[in-house]
ABC transporter ATP-binding protein
Amino acid sequence: MSEPAISIRGLEKVYGNGKVALHGIDLDIPRGSMFGLLGPNGAGKSTTINILAGLVNKTAGSARVWGFDIDANPRNAKASIGIVPQEIVFDAFFTPFEVLELQAGLYGVPKAQRRTMDILRAVRLEDKANAYARTLSGGMKRRLLVAKALVHNPPILVLDEPTAGVDIELRQQLWAYVRELHSYGTTVVLTTHYLEEAEALCDRIAIINHGRVVANDETRTLLATAQEKVVVVTIDRDLDLAPDHLGVGKVELRGTRQLAITYDKRERQAGAVLHALTEAGLGIVDVSTQEADLEDVFLSLTRSVAA
């Protein structure tokens, strides 16, 4: 089995004021994966990313990026990863072309090997190559950050909240390009507060809470851990109140003829819920079910783990 794209062991970070950001986390990110790194604000996601990028010094533990130890081989480790930060940071008086040329120079990419116009074309900024960066829209600036992260052709791309403040069309364009990169073998690590994005894009997800990894599994397996399920039933008469004597879980009245029943799927099946309704004399007109999504799993895990 090939070595993970990123391998973290016992990673700790304690800041000067005594705040513990990471409590000795262990984490492997497989090569070629689309990996989601999720957690509430302040959970330790950005600290982890900044340690991998060489921007923050760890307190203890080890980390390897594409096989290179971040302490023993920092140059190779940094060359193996491209970071797209949350903040939009670059010189407003540089053009996108100049921004990428400067970034390539910082990474030691020879001029003959630079792909500046190819990258700008890929992120749909070719026509803005010589415009000042300050004139770009918010979505264009986001795409320029992605372009900056790609100038040295890293095998790993880390996107830290890349679609914050980006409209739907530009978000779809960005994800189309990221999927294309992934199809060519790039390992993509994504942090986002848009959990539906992570659920749709990522084949594996880890959740960090209070500096600890509380979940790390394939997305479909993680979704299967959610125990609550909702069945929505349209009945044949108007009700003023939700019936409280069914004994099948939480019953919510929506409108006058629709009942949303939340139950634990470990304890009963949908058939038992419907049987309880008919036993109560309620005729069933229509039925639909709602499976738990990543948001349900996320809230369950982050609420249940104390600091």
About this structure: The chain has a mean pLDDT of 87. The radius of gyration is 24 Å. The longest strand covers residues 20-29.
